[in-house]
Design brief:
By secondary structure, this protein is α/β, with parallel strands linked by helices. About 50% of the residues lie in helices and about 15% in strands. The strands form two sheets. A six-stranded mixed sheet has the order 2-3-1-4-5-7, sandwiched between helices. A two-stranded antiparallel sheet has the order 6-8. The protein is globular. The mean pLDDT is about 95. It binds guanosine-5'-diphosphate, potassium ion (K) and magnesium ion. The site of magnesium ion has 2 residues, from helix 1. This is Ferrous iron transport protein B.
Amino acid sequence: GKTINVALVGNPNCGKTSLFNFASGAHEHVGNYSGVTVDAKEGTFQQDGYTFRIVDLPGTYSLSAYTPEELYVRRHLSEEQPDVVINVLDASNLERNLYLTCQLIDMDVRSVIALNMYDELERSGNKFDYESLSRMIGTPIVPTISRTGFGIEDLFKRVIKVYEEEDPVIRHIHINYGEVLEKGITNVRHVIKQNGNVAKSLSKRYLSIKLLEGDPEIERFIQTLPGSETIIEERDQNVTQIEELLLEDSETAFTNARYGFISGALRETYEQNKIKEATST
Ligand code: GDP
Ligand code: K
Ligand code: MG
């Protein structure tokens, strides 16, 4: 049978290790603790004639370059190139969890979302039309409860579909960052294309976004390419332009645009339980 390499990516405490343990039969530590080392656990299991090699990556809120965890996850994604990423979300904290999802979309990785803590969502009485969000972002979403194993078999069935390129929902999308940022992305991307000679596997849109955000690691990577001076110059000009037009620094503008995208998406798909809201104040 075939082997599918899967990486678990999500915020701290969203249930990655519980999912990992349930799927692989491992007994890794679950719950709140601050690990001293940043590392990843690996496990293997079989389902539906496939072998899954899964990696439980450190929890992160973002894929910028500010913490060892963020860098570790990012390097794993670009260097190991897992076949499919399982993006684990805490369904009771969608707005914050979807920030990382936006960055996975930027990186253009093939992913399936585990809508974990689904029990807490049901208990809350809040309504979430996750299938609609799924179509919107072109990514399958499967409800799971890692603690009990609910949904995990279905989750890996979707991973197989995505791996085999048979999933009906999968669609390549972009976060629309708005006119000003999109223009900057287009300009930098164009210059990377002309000068960079970047590996095909690396999304040029992703590199452009990261450069415009001032990401030091991506800048160091670009500096290894022929034509890097022209690329960095184009970046600098576009950052200046963005900051003049939006009156905020470029990195903040990207962060705000992501949260804008998320709140727009949730406005269309998520409804707070009004009764509970009214009585809890
Ligand atoms: P990680 O930090 O992402 O690896 O998350 P863990 O697997 O360590 O889980 C964090 C906490 O959430 C633990 O107390 C788990 O028992 C709990 N947990 C994990 N999955 C679920 C779930 O689907 N529902 C509920 N209610 N709790 C969960
Ligand atoms: K919890
Ligand atoms: Mg964990």
